[in-house]
Structure to design on (62 residues):
């Protein structure tokens, strides 16, 4: 995304503004958090599912 013009992107973004100690210009890193949040939701669901199951011969069937 450029800093110029109308923006039509919507979603969950993590934005970091940074500047190297000797630089004059501020740089930007933008992370789209949608995939991160989906992965976290899936990992949480899987973890909850594993905790509720009893292992049989060292194997947890999902």
């Amino acid at each position: 995304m450029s800093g110029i013009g109308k923006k039509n992107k919507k979603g969950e973004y993590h934005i970091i503004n940074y500047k190297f100690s000797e630089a004059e210009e501020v740089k930007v890193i933008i992370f789209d958090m949608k995939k991160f949040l989906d992965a976290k939701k899936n990992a949480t669901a899987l973890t909850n599912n594993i905790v509720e199951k009893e292992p049989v011969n060292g194997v947890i069937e999902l």
User: Anything to note?
Assistant: The chain has a mean pLDDT of 78. Helices lie at 34-52.
